[in-house]
Specification:
Layout: E1 10-12, E2 23-34, E3 38-49, H1 52-72, E4 80-93, E5 100-115, H2 121-130, E6 135-142, H3 147-172, E7 174-184, E8 189-191, E9 198-199, E10 206-207, E11 212-226
Antiparallel strand pairs: 1-2, 2-11, 3-5, 3-6, 4-5, 7-11, 8-11, 9-10
Protein name: SIMPL domain-containing protein
InterPro entries: 26kDa_periplasmic_antigen, SIMPL/DUF541
GO biological process, one term: DNA damage response
C-alpha cells in the first residue's frame, strides 16, 4: 500500500534586476508505508513495602524474573534497557490531625524492550505479565532498517514537487527552467497509524501491527523563463 499526500506552497520572487530570471519555489511532501518488523514496549514493576529495602527487593525480584523470561523467549540483551529506576516514600494524611506521615515505600523499575520477532509479541506481553510486570506505558511499531522506506518517501516528495512545479508553470504560461536548489525540510518523520486488533495467539495479549509510515518534505527552487 502506497499513498501520497501533498502540501504545496508556491512563491514567485520579485526580480532584483530587470534581466534577472524569475523563480518558482515549490514544497512537496511524500509518504511511504510498509509493514513493521519490530516493536518497542515499555513495561515495569512497582512494589510497596513498609521499608525501602523490602520495596526495592520485591521490585528487583520481579524485574529479574522478567529479564529471565525475555532471554528464554529469544530477546537479546542489547534489546533490553532499564529506562527508569525510582524509590520514594508513600505519604498518608491522617484524618484527625491532617498531618502527612510516611506509611511505607514504593520502588519502581521500568524497562524498554525491543521485540524483533513480531510473531512472538503477544506471547512476550502475556509472559511478562505472568512474571510480575504491573506497569505498562508504551507500545510502538517500527522498522529495523528504515533507510529504504525513508528514501522512498524522499523520492515521492521530489516527484510531488516536480509535478506541481510543471503544473504551475504551464498554468502561468512560462517555461520551467533548471533546478536552482533542493532542501529537505525537517527530515523524514514517522506517521501515527491506526490499525485493527488481532491476537498473536489465542491466549496471548491482543496486539496490532498494521503499517508504519514515514513522511518527507522537500523544497525545490526552479528558474523560470517566458514561454514564447
Amino acid at each position: 500500500m502506497r499513498m501520497l499526500s501533498f502540501c504545496i506552497a508556491l512563491a514567485l520572487a520579485t526580480p532584483l534586476y530587470a534581466d534577472e530570471a524569475g523563480r518558482i519555489t515549490v514544497t512537496g511532501e511524500g509518504q511511504a508505508f510498509a509493514a513493521p518488523d519490530m516493536a518497542t514496549i515499555t513495561l515495569g514493576v512497582t512494589e510497596r513495602a513498609d521499608n525501602a529495602r523490602d520495596a526495592m527487593d520485591a521490585t528487583s525480584a520481579g524485574v529479574a524474573a522478567i529479564l529471565g523470561r525475555l532471554t528464554a523467549m529469544g530477546v537479546e540483551p542489547r534489546d533490553v534497557q532499564t529506562s527508569d529506576l525510582s524509590l520514594g516514600p508513600v505519604w498518608t494524611q491522617h484524618n484527625s490531625s491532617g498531618e502527612a506521615v510516611i506509611t511505607g515505600y514504593e520502588a519502581s523499575n521500568r524497562l524498554t524492550v525491543r521485540v524483533r520477532n513480531l510473531d512472538s509479541l503477544g506471547g512476550v506481553l502475556d509472559a511478562v505479565l505472568e512474571d510480575g510486570a504491573n506497569r505498562f506505558s508504551g507500545l510502538g511499531f517500527g522498522l529495523q532498517d528504515p533507510a529504504p522506506l525513508e528514501d522512498e518517501a524522499r523520492r515521492a516528495a521530489v516527484a510531488d514537487a516536480l509535478a506541481r512545479a510543471r503544473l504551475y508553470a504551464e498554468a502561468a504560461g512560462v517555461d520551467l527552467g533548471p533546478i536552482l536548489s533542493i532542501n529537505e525540510s525537517g527530515g523524514v518523520r514517522p506517521m501515527p497509524m491506526d490499525a485493527p486488533m488481532f491476537a498473536a495467539r489465542a491466549e496471548a495479549v491482543p496486539v496490532a501491527a498494521g503499517e508504519t509510515g514515514l513522511s518527507a518534505s522537500v523544497t525545490i527552487v526552479f528558474a523560470l523563463g517566458t514561454d514564447e
